[in-house]
Amino acid sequence: MDELQTRIEHTVLGPLTDWDAVTTVLDTSAELGMRACIPPTYVAAASEYEPAVEVSTVVGFPHGQHTVETKCTEATQAWKDGAAEIDLVPNLGQAAGGDIEAFTDELDEITAAVPIPVKVILETPLFEDEQLRTLAAAAAETDIEFLKTSTGYTDGSATVEAVSLLSEYAKVKASGGIDSYAFTEELFDAGADRIGASSGDMIVEEYLEQ
To answer: CB burial class (10 A; 0-12, 13-18, 19+) of residue 44?
Structure first.
């Protein structure tokens, strides 16, 4: 698969993530040609440490219950610090409760706040297909660039079925429980454009060993 490495976001987002963990991910990403996804705390330093690696960071992470104003501030700061893309956790509680207007208004405000791509995380394991389609269709009417499957902080992981569904509406970043090239290939075949994984290095190494 051509340019597979550039479609992998090597990720470190745990609650105990420190600078050493971030530099390890950046070093590995630079060596293997991957992107990286890191906590917002480290974006400015990461941009100086390894400017060749395209860095994404998270906003509203991991549960999305921040105010919209706070998320806009987070997103703007991340962009100023050097983030190339934003992975946003929206207020899924509002959306699940039926307030789709609040959901899309939030996406509109945050995408308007920054001139970089925004991926919206839909926590696909939490929703039945019908509700997931409602959210995906609504999000696709805004200026988001990607739909993303999961933060990794809920039960369940990325699935072929969820990726296939989301790909009907927008580009897809699959994340959550992806730890092999074989599964990565299945997700790409299902319509994923990107993969987010803490095992990004293993995925790429397995691919290169073929």
So the answer is: middle
Report all structural domains of the chain as residue ranges with CATH numbers, in order of start: 4-208 (3.20.20.70)
Dihedral Cα 81, 34, 114, 157, nearest 10 deg:
-120
For 123-176, what is each residue's pLDDT tens digit?
999 999 999 999 999 999 999 999 999 999 998 899 999 999 999 999 999 999
Tokens of 111: 């995408």
Q: Which residues are catalytic?
A: 87, 148, 173
- Reference 46, options 30, 24, 22; nearest CA is 22
In whole angstroms, how large is the CA radius of gyration of the chain? Answer: 16
Polymer length in residues for the chain: 210
Q: Is this structure's pTM higher than 0.85?
A: yes
How does pLDDT run across 33-61, given as a tens digit for each residue? 999 999 999 999 999 999 999 999 999 99
Beta bridge partners of 85: 56
Q: Which two tokens stand for residue 149?
A: 């499957």
List % helix, strand, coil for the chain (3-state, nearest 5). Answer: 50, 15, 35
Handedness of CA 82, 9, 199, 71 (dihedral sign): positive
DSSP class of residue 209? T
Distances 127 to 9, 93, 130, 141 between C-alpha atoms, Å? 24, 11, 8, 20
